[in-house]
Amino acid sequence: MSLSQHFMPLLLAALISLGFASATQAADEGAKVVYHVDFKDPTRYSATLTSINNIINYYESELMMPEIHLVFVGYGIRFTTDDNLKGTPYAAKKPLLDRRDELKGRLDALVNVRGVKVHLCDKTRSEINLGKDKLYEFIDTTASGVAKIAMLQSEGFAYLKVQ
């Protein structure tokens, strides 16, 4: 066996190994997403929840473990509590009240079954004096929602906002 025939299988194995390493790294980077909710429309929010579920289904079908964060800021607070927020700029209106239980159940499933991490801007919460005890139990607060989004982006998370 010539020297080139001896090293060819080793070279081929090394190249295949490098290819798998790059594909895995790209997949890991692509499986990190942060969604931004700062709007009041329950239909748009429902579309956001559907999008999160769809992206998780895709990654799982590719045998990847996605890391998904959902950050609520401003009007997004309406989707983190059963409080009607009466007397605040974020007061719940009929379209939200009609769908609140359904939306809460879908968010709960994304958090407790699918592993989505949920954050509420504590600045928004404190501006309207809403007690943390009024938030859904699975809501985590963060000092600044937009800063949380920026930090996640600096860690390689893709930014998504359903329009």
Based on the model shown, name its key terms.
14% strand; 5 helices; 163 residues; globular; alpha/beta
Q: Please, could you describe this protein's structure?
A:
With 163 residues, the chain is α/β, with parallel strands linked by helices. Helix content is 51%, strand content 14%. It has a five-stranded parallel beta sheet with strand order 4-3-2-1-5, sandwiched between helices. Strand 2 (67-72), helix 3 and strand 3 form a beta-alpha-beta unit. It starts with a helix and ends with a strand.
- Please tally the β strands and state the result: 5
Largest sheet: 5 strands, parallel
What pattern of helices and strands is seen along the backbone?
HEHEHEHEHE
**Reading side by side through the largest sheet, how are the strands ordered?**
4-3-2-1-5
Query: With helices defined by DSSP (H or I, 4 residues minimum), what is the helix count?
Result: 5
- Uncertain segments are 10-27
Name the shape in a single word: globular
Mean pLDDT: 88
- Report the sheet-strand fraction: 5-15%
Briefly characterize the structure.
The chain has helices at 3-30, 42-61, 94-112, 122-127, 145-154; strands spanning 32-37, 67-72, 117-121, 140-142, 158-160. With 163 residues, it is of the alpha/beta class.
Give the topology.
Layout: H1 3-30, E1 32-37, H2 42-61, E2 67-72, H3 94-112, E3 117-121, H4 122-127, E4 140-142, H5 145-154, E5 158-160
Parallel strand pairs: 1-2, 1-5, 2-3, 3-4
Helix pairs in contact: 2-3
